[in-house]
Design a protein that fits this description.
This protein has 154 residues and is α/β, with parallel strands linked by helices. The protein is built from 6 helices and 5 strands, in the order βααβαβαβαβα. The chain has a single domain, classed as Dehydroquinase, class II (Rossmann fold, 3-Layer(aba) Sandwich), CATH 3.40.50.
Length: 154
């Protein structure tokens, strides 16, 4: 039986392939989602992807994920740096949540060096372009298959 994981993309990630190609590359979100679904199959996971530009929609999906999925990859986009509410939801999760970013937040504007959501996540992978998602999916598969609950120090 395939275990389900969710990939949640936050604000502006629907613009992948058109937005700041020097930072994010030319791959579209649809192509990235297909890539992750295929990788998930090889890892024994069913991957479901969702993108929204709305903070509340991400929070709602995370809450539902606790009953519907075994883990989440979360790219909260700019909400990483501003959303206490989203960070509180990530902190409350009973399944592993791996935060992913395509760019290295520390190499960008100073305001991006703090991730409220990353501090609440099981782990953070950043700076590897679309491979950040792939690396995160590999880690989720490992955690789910080993029965681990994640690396949060709580």
């Amino acid at each position: 039986m395939m275990r389900t994981v969710w990939v949640l993309h936050g604000p502006n990630l629907g613009l992948l392939g058109r937005r700041e190609r020097s930072l994010y590359g030319s791959e579209t979100l649809k192509a990235l989602d297909r890539r992750l679904e295929k990788l998930g199959e090889t890892l024994g996971l069913r991957v479901e992807c969702f993108q929204t530009n709305h903070e509340g929609a991400l929070i709602d999906r995370l809450v539902v994920a606790m009953d519907a999925a075994k883990g989440c990859l979360l790219n909260p986009g700019g909400l990483s740096h501003t959303s206490v509410a989203l960070a509180d939801t990530v902190r409350a999760m009973t399944i592993p949540v791996i935060e992913v970013h395509m760019t290295n937040l520390y190499a960008r504007e100073p305001m991006r060096a703090v991730s409220l959501t990353g501090a609440a996540a099981t782990g953070v992978i950043m700076g590897f372009g679309v491979r950040s998602y792939e690396l995160g999916l590999h880690d989720l598969a490992s955690q789910i298959n080993s029965g681990a609950r994640g690396g949060r120090d709580r």
